TrEMBL record:
Acts as a processive, ATP-dependent zinc metallopeptidase for both cytoplasmic and membrane proteins. Plays a role in the quality control of integral membrane proteins. This is ATP-dependent zinc metalloprotease FtsH. GO terms for cellular component: cytoplasm; plasma membrane. Residues 121-257 form the AAA+ ATPase domain. Homohexamer. The active site is at 349. It is a multi-pass membrane protein. Its cofactor is Zn(2+). The chain crosses the membrane at residues 33-54. HAMAP family: FtsH. GO terms for biological process: cell division; protein catabolic process; proteolysis. Binds 1 zinc ion per subunit.
Length: 519
């Protein structure tokens, strides 16, 4: 709008000037007081307006404008400069990591005893691992334990299309941290600016990373500043960023084990009214593989469900519903499903549960054909204990459980449906890991790196197909030999829509000991 106004004024000024000059010297009008100096003045004003308009239209001016705005934004200080009140008491389940960080905290609080021994404070700490495991919370707790200023930044905040803006933001951030020392600089999703450099890298991104490397390696060692980074993709980070002297300590923050899950659930339920039927330890066992964020979500969902049902306390049914809500999605109240499809879904889910029971892969908690989210049915299961190592036979059994639904469809209906899409994807993923990562195929004891998979895709696909086909044949055999149990489970599902673990045990116990393996 401003540019348009300047352009219009320039045109009007030039037009008036030209008209008056012509009118004066061609005697169109009687302009006795109009002199040659007046015409030059009008032309000068027109020229100034034109130059100002051209400057407004010049694109390079956008860069300093962006930098100026960034300076005003950062000088505010209201966003970054604060001291969190969070301590390690608010962080549950990460005992080993908290113990590792105690040295850093003690160094900040009592630097003299370390200086006497010639020890230097770690320049940086890198948290890596899956999302929702508490990396940001740990960084805030370190700042809270040391009463340090906490400066939060996301890696994407430093990514700009204008050259030099990202590097300037890095410099500004570190300058503020120096003024407020001792301080913690936390860069979340650091892979956005710290990814590996190559010939095809963006120049602005490289300059931003270079500035970060310089600041981490070159700031005044007398000032207590610690950089904490967080990422879900450690493999993407540049080697220069990972070396000692920059990020001295790399700490993996993974999903909590059963004991840690219990502690996390206690933290998130301490201000909630719980019924005596709620056993936190049992809920922790049911939530194998869940992150801290998911556990917090379950506790919150349970409270919301209890309020929705006009309860004054939260009982175990609310927690079970919350777990199902997080795992399977929102329950559809009035689904329009044909009876034929309902029969197929019942036998499909019964196939999963039956194979899981026969092979004793996991503990079956619940089977349901009540649609949730995009799933027409589901089987809730959890391991009897946390496992970190799996044998080849255990992985084969997991694949067979995933294929149990499709095998049941084929045995009962002599046809297969699209319902096994997700099962096939997960089974293929396990088989690919067996071939490419675990050396559990005829290719031998080798691990194939991701960048070399495309050069061996035919061999890999052949091995994956062999594993899947062999598992499917075994699954079909098991389904056929225990067909009568499958049908009874499916009929129970059609009548009651859900089966709990004890009901499933009662159905299976009525028959002779079923075959537990297929050869």
């Amino acid at each position: 709008m401003k540019k348009k106004i300047i352009l219009i004024l320039t045109i009007i000024s030039l037009t008036i000037s030209s008209f008056l000059i012509h009118a004066k010297y061609l005697n169109f009008l009687s302009l006795n007081n109009f002199t040659l100096g007046d015409s030059f003045l009008i032309w000068a004003i027109s020229l100034c307006l034109l130059i100002y308009y051209l400057k407004l239209d010049s694109k390079p001016q956008l860069v300093p404008a962006a930098i100026t705005n960034e300076k005003k934004k950062n000088d505010d200080g209201s966003k970054d400069n604060n001291k969190p009140k969070i301590s390690f008491n608010d962080v549950a389940g990460l005992d080993e990591i908290k113990e590792e960080l105690q040295e850093v905290i003690d160094f900040i609080n009592n630097p003299e005893k370390y200086n006497k021994m010639g020890a230097k404070i770690p320049n940086g700490i890198l948290f890596y691992g899956p999302p929702g495991t508490g990396k940001t919370l740990l960084a805030k707790a370190v700042a809270g334990e040391t009463n340090s200023s906490f400066f939060y930044a996301s890696g994407s905040e430093f990514v700009e299309k204008y050259v030099g803006v990202g590097a300037k933001r890095i410099r500004t951030l570190f300058e503020k941290a120096k003024k407020e020392a001792p301080s913690i600089i936390f860069i979340d999703e650091i892979d956005a600016i710290g990814s590996k450099r190559n010939l095809d890298s963006n120049n602005e991104k490289d300059q931003t990373l270079n500035q970060l490397l310089i600041e981490m390696d070159g700031f005044n060692k007398n000032q207590t500043i610690i950089v904490i980074g967080a990422t879900n993709r450690l493999d993407l980070l540049d080697e220069a960023l990972l070396r000692p002297g920059r990020f001295d300590r790399h700490i993996y923050v993974g999903n909590p084990n059963v004991r840690a899950r219990e502690e996390i659930l206690k933290v998130h339920t301490k201000n909630k009214p719980l019924d005596s039927s709620v056993k936190i330890k049992e809920i922790a066992k049911k939530t194998h593989g869940f992150s801290g964020a998911q556990l917090a979500n379950i506790a919150n969902e349970a409270a919301i469900i209890a309020v929705r049902k006009n309860k004054t306390i939260i009982d175990i049914e609310d927690f079970n519903s919350a777990i199902e809500r997080v795992i399977a999605g929102l329950e559809l109240k009035h689904p329009s499903i044909l009876f034929k499809e309902k029969r197929i879904v019942a036998h499909h889910e019964a196939g999963h549960a039956l194979i899981g029971k026969l092979l004793k892969v996991d503990i079956i908690q619940k089977i349901s054909i009540v649609p949730r989210g995009q799933a027409l049915g589901y089987v809730l299961k959890f391991p009897d204990e946390d496992r970190y190592l799996h044998t080849k036979e255990e992985l084969i059994s997991k694949i067979m459980v995933l294929l149990g639904g499709r095998a049941a469809e084929e045995v009962i209906f002599n046809e297969i449906t699209t319902g096994a899409k997700d099962d096939l994807s997960k089974a293929t993923e396990i088989a690919q890991e067996m071939v490419c990562s675990y050396g559990m195929s005829s290719l031998g004891n080798i691990a194939i790196k991701e960048q070399y998979i495309k050069y061996n895709i035919d061999k890999i696909d052949k091995e994956i197909k062999m594993i899947i086909d062999d598992c499917y044949k075994k699954t079909i055999k098991l389904i056929k030999e225990n067909k009568i149990i499958l049908i009874e489970i499916a009929n129970y599902l059609l009548e009651y829509e859900t089966i709990e673990n004890n009901e499933l045990e009662n159905i299976i116990s009525k028959y002779e000991t079923p075959i537990k393996s297929a050869t």
